[in-house]
Amino acid sequence: MAGTNIARLELAMKRIRNVLRTHGAASARILENKISDAGPTNQRIDPHLLTKARVLLENVNDVEVVKDKKGTPWYYLRGIPAEVLEPRLKELQALHEETQSKQFTLRMGQALELAVSKALLSQKHFHTLGHFTDMKDHDDSTLYKKEEPPSNISGKTCEGKLDFVLFSGTAGLAGIEVKNVREWVYSQSDEVIQMVKKCCALDAVPVLIARRYSYEAFSILTECGVIVHQMYNQRYANHDADLANRVRDKRLLGYHDVRVGNDADERLLKFVHVNLPLLMDGARAKFDEHRELLDEYVNSDMGTRSLSPRSEGGITRNGNTRIMRDLGTMNRITSRAMTTSDLYVFSSSFPSQVSNVNASQTENLDRAARRPDVQQG
Question: Does the predicted TM-score (pTM) go above 0.85?
């Protein structure tokens, strides 16, 4: 598999150079959007590998970096004339800065939370906690007021509050966290760590709704009883429609997946109304089995974290190495026995991650990874 890893790194470096050559300069989020989220499927590179490729290019001085006044790094090819680079950076940084303002980020965070809240209010399977009290009173130019779920339920207490809490007659509690961020979610992401900490404390099945997450996160978390749903887009408030149009411009930030509004789309409604009720009992069984492991994982030091589901092998992570060892999960996806060396999770181009698997099997793997909203159904 070493040859495959090297080939993916080479492809990542080639794509970084191409983007910077045509775009002039780019932040990490722009590079991820153009290389991890877009382009031919077999040429998409997961962000963790993209970062390695970018660092290699920096080390050989092919790519240079400058930080803006807020500390955000911007990357460009060595040798680009200053008269080209400087106005380009000024243009991109000004728009990026608009997306970092406090009021905008608060409205953006509420946009997806509102959509999830509406989906929960329209379902009949669960009792829920967490509600916006004035959704019908004004538009989203003003932040809505929210009654958060309690942090103490049935004598169990967590630090902080979950976005929503569900009560299931057969599976007990579930805690929902909604993350409307551009970064892909990994199993060691802070969003995951904080959510699992709260859910372990409350004995609640964790449910994560995010824009994108890695296949590594999908595989590890679902085996441990975490339910995950991938939006494939980022929500902006209606008030920020003009900004949404500008960030979608491929000459600027190029965030092509930005959507405007706070209504639940068809995929989110299907997840909440159909898939979530079907997944709860199975997730509860897995969560109960691995809860001690999860609790140890989220409360350990980052340098020593290891998440190994107590099934066939499990998954171990040390430093930057992520090796898929959960043969049970992959057998269900590919319908064949696999050894550890058969699979190394490295990019979102899932067929290219699997060696010695025929076309129909890799198609099944890609389909399963692309539709994580039905990952356990």
Answer: no
